[in-house]
Amino acid sequence: MSLESWLKETEVEEEITFEEVEETTTTEEKLRLKGVYLVSADYDPDRSKVVLKFYDPKTEKIFLWYDCFNHKPYCYSKEDVEALKRKPEISQNERIVGLDREERLDPITDRKISVTKIVAADPLAIGGTRVSLREKLRVWEADIKYYLNYLIDMDLQIGIPYDVTKNKITESKLEMDPVATEIAEKVLKDVENKEEYEKWLKILSAEIPVFKRVAFDLEVFTEEEIIPSTSKADQPILAASFYGSDGLKKVLIHDIEGKLTEDMFKDKEYEVEIFRNEKSMIARIMEILEQYPFVITFNGDNFDFPYLYHRAIRLGFRKEDIPIKLGRNDARIIWGIHIDLYKFFFNKSVKSYAFKNRYDIVSLEEVSEALLGEGKVKLEEIVSKVSPSLLADYSFTDGKLTYELTSFNNDLVMKLITIIARISNMTLEDVCRLAVSNWIKNRLIQMHREKRYLIPLKDEIKAKGAERFTEPITKGKKYIGAVVVQPKPGVFFNVVVMDFASLYPSIIKEYNISYETVRCLHPECKDNIIPGTPHWVCKRKRGLMSEFVGIIRDLRVRVFKKLAKDQRLSKNLREFYDVVQGALKVIINASYGVFGSEAFPFYYLPAAESVTMTGRNVITKTIEYCRKLGLDVIYGDTDSLFLHNPPENKLDELVKFAKREFKLDLEVDKVYRYVAFSVRKKNYFGVLTNGQIDVKGLVGKKRNTPKLIKDAFFKSLEVLREVYTPEEFEKAKEQVKKIYFDTEERLKKREFTLDEVAISVVLGKRLEDYTSTTPEHVKAAKLLQTVMNREVKPGEVIRYVKTRGRLGVKPIEGASEKLIREIDVKRYIELLKSTFEQLMDAIGIDLEREVRGVNRLESFM
DNA sequence: GCGGACTGCTTACCT
DNA sequence: ACAGGTAAGCAGTCCGCG
Questions:
Q1: Which residue, A621, A579, A613, is CA-closest to A595?
Q2: Which of A129, A634, A713, A802 has the fewest CB atoms within 10 Å around its CB?
Q3: Nucleotide nearest to A773 (CA to C1')
Q4: For the whole prediction, is pTM greater than 0.85?
Q5: Which residue is nearest to nucleotide B13 (CA to C1')?
Q6: Residues 665-724 of chain A: which lie with beta carbon within 7 Å of strand C?
Q7: Domain match, A617 and A656 both
Q8: Per-residue pLDDT tens digits for A368-398
Q9: First to last CA, chain A
């Protein structure tokens, strides 16, 4: 049967609709829920109310709770009520329902001001459309999402348990672990704002429930290797897979040709349901999904849910019967929480701080391979062409991997998301979709509100400070960054690396850096200068950012890191506290960067450069003190100092100096048996005292280096790992040389596979955006697109080889081993040479001379 | 018209 | 939509050279 006739046939079938979404419990008079976790909030435009989502771990269900306090959205004006009433934007707007005078503190001037609260009937009257108040008048606090505003006003905290009745929400009593209490009490004794700490301790140490969830993945028919259009949704769904925390393992298969039987899938590890009718299959998909309060996808915002939605519409479902809400950048499910892992793993902070850049490309394949050690089912062809059995396996594995990404290490990812939601007080959905500047922004907004500060507008912050003062070292940057010490070339045995514990956040904390405190308006603060700048810092008030970073940092170092190691606690609990301290670290590490990012509402270059300039001063002064102590500084970068053969007692003195002089913690980071430097910065290797190899920045470890060269490089490192004394170096050097020449021989004789000489480079932007130059990988990508008719997208890895042909490159995809004959061996030898030069430079081999020597020898033979 | 010096673009890395 | 600093290769341009 052709696809077209098949579609026609389905249209005449009887109407299938989704089951009614469960009526919310608010209508029940008796509603009484205990220990239910607040996980989300949203605005329901139909009821003109905020809806809260509570997760009950006992029944494993989500309850929707609609506002019953008649809370209204609002913003502020600096004009008085009378003046506002004279404005047509206010007087002729029936959606403005109230004007109230209020007192606020302007954090920039540190003076009380009177403002008018403009109350509206719905959030769109404030902002979000072209005719909203925000676009017409100069108003404050008008771009806070309404449901987040609600949480703040109602003093609600995401991620902790509540007892809920129809018209009352109270925090559940939380029992803190006695060990945690003991450690926390010590810290509480000497902090300036005890209540704030207590609040945080309670929020962060609350238990996290197991979230009942299902991972969901859709496979759709496609003619070519292109992603089907979600808006057209003109191709049938082929399969849907489910993997649930309750053990559900299921694949729904669409039997387009009417040839499938259940027997064909008998020995699978998952159940299979076969559907002749796509419409019933969609209804079944929805039925399964709705049994789970949390739905996990990998890219469900931009593919699975929009496709499902539009396909359902196309097949005749009514809009109001589909419980999916498609936004500009997200897909929400009205009965629960949709978590899109693609967005979460794409997050720069998550990628680097939580997962240490263990994955480079954000794809289900790469991320699972890196974090789970398990990849997708490999297909030789596109999904539309493989056998039903293979398609089912493929789909199932995608669902399974997606689920496992949330369950590995004892539900690490779910916990991480929950803890970040607690810190930022954002919904779980927002946490996994928005970036770190948003997380920090939301918590700062709440802090402003709690202190009754009026949140300044971006232009007010900008107008307050002079432009940046420093010149960046790197072209195209906005201000100066860190100091990198020129390394002393050579091999050094017994090297101790000292570093300042989270230097920038500590500076923000200790030096009171915040947008309102740097260049404050108090005359008496103007002598409190940041070294090397004309900026000064407030002496009268603690800055908001400084307070926030200070608390988070203290709690991490003094409470949660300790708890994570406390042997009196169960392994489970220690693991949990370790996740907490890890989440705190993610936030702390990003706290400086946001000051220099325009996307951040509290963007303020004088604050950013105050941090880096203080850092420069700290490291420079510490190096000077090392000289005084007779310590030999052979290298340093930003917050670290490499000391050659330092006497123990001198190190103690250095630590004391840092504490006394800067109030900062300097500590031993690592100790090298030996470390080898060339003249290059950020470029060295060493062997730690435990025998572990540490390579930094060398070409040999870069992801785009061909395997052949990489292997030779790491083989050499293995040799160097066995070196314990300067004498042993000589033998090792000979071995490294041999590895080099052996590899060169292999290249000359073409004894390699295509895979070994493939160069993998990420395509950074769309092909047509490379306007000034055409780098090699772009040439290869263009060949892929034009010759092989294969669409290439930014973010994709292009694998190519260097050839002797006109263009000099060819893509690997679809090529046979015959391509080896075209390889430009000469250019690979150059690559090998430069890779080894970095290594050999450091250990004192002049590669150029060695090569000439051998060549001369060869020419005689 | 050609080659070396130079600059700018691009990617990947370090802290 | 967190930052700046560094290395390296290649593409493209400029300049000198009878």
A1: A613
A2: A129
A3: C11
A4: yes
A5: A697
A6: 679-683, 697, 699
A7: yes
A8: 999 998 888 787 777 777 888 999 999 999 9
A9: 73
